[in-house]
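<goal> How does this chain fold?
<sample>
Here is the protein in question

***
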Amino acid sequence: MADKLHFSLVSPERELFAGLVDQVDAPGSEGDFGVLANHAPFMTALKEGQVRVHHDGKVTVYDVRGGFADVTPEGLTILAEHASEAA
């Protein structure tokens, strides 16, 4: 079984997602990026766009506006200024 990434998406109102996933793609201020398990640590600001969460062959999409993404050895946390599940 492949390694899983622990991912958490938090907005000021609530935590929208927390769990183990295969991959997350996000809109970084310096360009879009993808994170898999065991990714090198980094932190970046986010621009407006979509966060795509890949898990077991399914993709869940969230709209975000601003915030930060923090990749650590424990996983990826996105603290968004605004986030909602895409329609």
Remarks:
- The mean pLDDT is 95.
- Strands lie at 5-10, 15-21, 23-28, 31-35, 42-45, 49-55, 58-72, 75-85.
